[in-house]
Amino acid sequence: MADRIPVVLVAGFLGSGKTTLLNHLLRDNRGTRIGVVVNDFGAINIDSMLVAGQVDAMVSLGNGCVCCAVDVTELDELFTRLTQPRAGIDVIVVEASGLAEPRNLIRMVLGSDNPRLRYGGLVEVVDAEQFPDSSARHPELRTHVRLADLVVLNKADRVTPEQLDRLRADIAALVGPVPVYATTHGRIDPGLLFDRPRRERPLVAEQLSFDELLVEHDHDDHAGHRHLHDDYTSVSFASERELDPRKLIGFLEDPPAGLFRAKGFAAFAVAGERRKFVLHMVGRHIVFEPGGWSRGESRGARLVLIGAGLPTDAALTRLRDTVHDDAEPLDAQSMLGVWRYTPH
Does residue 6 sit in helix, strand or coil? Predict the structure, then answer.
């Protein structure tokens, strides 16, 4: 699971700030090789430089990122190319708008047979100023928001605090516990979306060097604007004792508000069950993969929760409640919930 490349889908209405968000991720990658997939190079302006190209074209950027233009019918083929080890890609970001309905892209990623991929979540970018009017004219936008694993409430500086509160309440009524990340100019901490890789050597510049251009054209540097955003929260949980699988599944299926990702591993206090179960959760999508323990590795559980507006104390209290306190092991039936989320 750790070696699988997350595919993050970015959707949103025209002008919501998807391109600005993509540019921000490219600028702030800090050694992360990002594969950005768009359906038309002519429609995306990487800062002030317009990149012209044809369908299925690929351009390597100096910071190790890759920009690709594809037709949706060729998306799975492109995933195959981007996930090859020699491509060195750490995360793939797909701009859903113009390619297909977000629901279809989610199905494509979740249904992919590519063993190197995993679903990284649907990020729905919402224009805080325009969403009330645009969603009234285009009701399908509210459907798209309901599908989101994370809502980025962009351009929050263009509305009053009262308007922002009303919009938050409206979106919360649509999405329930899904995190809402309020920001300006597409700023989002990459750590909320994906993990940064650990590398021994820095990246070597390739065909095109965008880095210097980006320094000169930093459109996010608006000194007079408020930095309205909710910093992401990371919560760590550790237990030297095994967990109750039913209780852990209950926690994951009814997560605390604001939780976007969960990752880690656990041992379960089930009779005859000695395996290590690696967990990866994005939004409402949960995956367990059973495996063996490394030499010297202690049984128990190590989990990390990542979200926006996450109630950390309440989340940790609920996780502590998943620890099995009884000396008697649980029966095999208690694993049914885990098996439901285990790929076959």
Answer: strand
Please, are residues 285 and 119 in contact by the beta-carbon 8 Å criterion? yes
**pTM of the entire structure?**
0.82
Return the structure tokens found at 282.
């994005």
Say how far apart CA 222 and CA 227 lie, in whole Å.
Answer: 9
Backbone dihedral region of 258: left (phi > 0), alpha (psi from -120 to 50 degrees) or beta?
A: left
Q: How far apart are CA 26 and CA 122, in angstroms?
A: 18
pLDDT digit string (tens) for 130-155? 999 999 998 888 999 999 999 999 99
Distance CA 49, CA 18 (A): 16
d(CA 105, CA 246): 31
| Helices and strands in the chain: count of H runs, count of E runs | 11, 15
Q: For 197-249, what is each residue's pLDDT tens digit?
A: 765 444 443 332 333 333 333 333 433 333 445 567 889 999 999 999 999 99
